């Protein structure tokens, strides 16, 4: 069996059972797991959302939209399926009503896949899912990665209301506290919009995380910004998290916390491609919220970003 998408030349793109990129579905008990290099995992959970929910429906929406993705990356000439066995591993069994159970189930799913030699590429779900992804990698003994974050928010705030309950506003604060990321090799790109205060930027400075705002990214240039993040990684392992609200809501309206003034879809794809050469042990795309989408444009853009992330995880030649 080959781990390649079903071609639209053989089966209409609106036909068949949708999987990520029309790839084979290889569940946990399938012996083909031993052959898989990169596994796509759905994270259908948005219990950490602080305002507008709906990202729990992101994985299903992205599976459907990704049936439009073809084999070749026209911009780079890559055909990722020539270099790796890639499969849809299904969804993590995340409880919609219990945060601890949900995050632990995702961490266990990622740990199992990583222990089988599979690099995870996951689709959310809200951004708190990334914390469980990082926990799963650590549980499997993966090296501590530097973080590249493409997002309009730092997600470094303390828990809301003075409590302990985590939200999608603080996964990276918690990840740093748990030693799941290396702050001194981490870069956050795309921050913009209004803020409560400077708490998150101050905390980033204390940790050693580099922040590049949207304005600074556009002034510096996309390639130079990507080079900064790559240089800070210093050749070590990396994790890339892409929040769809990194992109201006004119292009990606289907998200819970949109921020105007962001990059175009073309700029988002270009800076993602420019990160090639970073040694990714895992990656994710989060915060696509279908209830707020318009004509499926956010889902289609998300599927396109997902393909670019996949291409980052395999060689270009």
User: What's the CATH class label?
Assistant: Alpha Beta
If you compute it from the alpha carbons, what radius of gyration comes out, rounded to the nearest whole angstrom? 18 Å
Give the amount of beta strand, in percent: 5-15%
Please state the structural category: alpha/beta
Describe what you observe in this structure.
31% of the residues lie in helices and 15% in strands. An eight-stranded parallel β-sheet has the order 2-1-3-8-7-4-5-6, with helices on both faces. β7, α8 and β8 form a beta-alpha-beta unit. It has helices spanning 58-65, 99-115, 129-139, 171-177, 199-207, 214-220, 222-233, 265-274, 297-312, and strands at 38-43, 86-91, 119-124, 146-150, 187-191, 210-213, 237-243, 279-286. It has a single domain (20-161, 168-312), classed as Ureohydrolase domain (Arginase, Chain A, 3-Layer(aba) Sandwich). With 317 residues, it is α/β, with parallel strands linked by helices. The protein is globular, with a radius of gyration of 18 Å.
Furnish the topology, listing elements before pairings.
Elements: E1 38-43, H1 58-65, E2 86-91, H2 99-115, E3 119-124, H3 129-139, E4 146-150, H4 171-177, E5 187-191, H5 199-207, E6 210-213, H6 214-220, H7 222-233, E7 237-243, H8 265-274, E8 279-286, H9 297-312
Parallel strand pairs: 1-2, 1-3, 3-8, 4-5, 4-7, 5-6, 7-8
Helix pairs in contact: 1-9, 2-3, 3-4, 7-8, 8-9
């Amino acid at each position: 069996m080959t781990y390649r998408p079903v071609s639209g030349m053989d089966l209409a793109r609106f036909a068949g059972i949708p999987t990520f990129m029309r790839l084979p579905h290889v569940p946990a008990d399938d012996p083909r797991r031993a052959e898989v290099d990169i596994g796509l995992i759905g994270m259908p959970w948005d219990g950490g959302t602080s305002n507008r929910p709906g990202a729990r429906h992101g994985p299903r929406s992205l599976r459907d939209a990704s049936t439009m993705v073809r084999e070749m990356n026209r911009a780079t000439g890559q055909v990722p399926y020539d270099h790796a066995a890639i499969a849809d591993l299904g969804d993590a069994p995340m409880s919609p009503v219990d945060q601890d159970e949900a995050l632990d189930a995702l961490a266990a799913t990622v740990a199992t896949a990583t222990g089988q030699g599979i690099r995870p590429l996951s689709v959310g779900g809200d951004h708190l899912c990334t914390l469980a992804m990082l926990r799963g990698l650590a549980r499997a003994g993966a090296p501590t990665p530097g973080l590249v974050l493409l997002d309009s928010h730092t997600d470094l705030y303390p828990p809301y209301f003075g409590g302990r309950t985590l939200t999608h506003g603080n996964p990276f604060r918690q990840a740093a506290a748990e030693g799941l990321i290396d702050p001194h090799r981490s870069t956050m790109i795309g921050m913009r919009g209004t803020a409560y205060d400077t708490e998150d930027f101050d905390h980033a400075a204390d940790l050693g995380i580099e922040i590049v705002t949207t304005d600074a990214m556009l002034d510096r240039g996309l390639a130079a910004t990507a080079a900064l993040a790559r240089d800070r990684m210093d050749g070590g392992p990396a994790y890339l998290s892409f929040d769809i609200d990194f992109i201006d809501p004119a292009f990606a309206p289907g998200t819970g916390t949109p921020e105007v003034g962001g990059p175009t879809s073309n700029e988002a794809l270009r800076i993602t491609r420019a990160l090639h050469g970073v040694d990714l042990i895992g990656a994710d795309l989060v915060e696509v919220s279908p209830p707020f989408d318009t004509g499926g444009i956010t889902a289609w853009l998300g599927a396109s970003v997902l393909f670019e992330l996949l291409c980052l995880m395999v060689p270009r030649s």
